[in-house]
User: Which sequence fits this backbone?
């Protein structure tokens, strides 16, 4: 097995394990509403292309970037999109774990429980949009 696949799967298992153990309650006062959750989701597809676009001028960034893959080092400073893709996958994992826990324990689903999933899905979408916008900066898939 590729070591980076093992790192990613291990991190996902750790995140899911923690998500199954944290207290389940609505931590915000006042509680979140649906428009706030939509803003959380929409933030990443708007901001990530801007932030990654600025990284094109970073001298430590590679001349070309690799597309996100499970088989490459997600912590590479030369490929800034990789850490964001990794973080998106971890947030989605946390969101799925929290939702499955709520469903399996027959607890009510509150909006705050959807935040990790909204953040992860928004970040994943932001990564995909960034790849489309800066297509010339990325290596072609083999």
Assistant:
């Amino acid at each position: 097995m590729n070591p980076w696949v093992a790192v990613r799967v291990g991190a996902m298992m750790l995140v899911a394990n923690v998500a199954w153990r944290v207290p389940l309650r609505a931590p915000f006062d006042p509680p979140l509403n649906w428009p706030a959750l939509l803003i959380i989701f929409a933030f990443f597809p708007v901001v990530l292309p801007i932030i990654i676009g600025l990284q094109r001028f970073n001298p430590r960034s590679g001349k070309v970037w690799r597309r996100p893959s499970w088989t490459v080092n997600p912590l590479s400073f030369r490929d800034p999109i990789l850490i964001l893709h990794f973080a998106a996958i971890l947030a989605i994992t946390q969101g799925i774990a929290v939702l499955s826990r709520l469903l399996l324990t027959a607890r009510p689903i509150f909006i705050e429980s959807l935040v990790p999933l909204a953040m992860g899905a928004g970040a994943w979408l932001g990564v995909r949009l960034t790849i489309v916008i800066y297509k010339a900066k990325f290596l072609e898939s083999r």
Notes: Residues 47-68+77-142 form one domain.
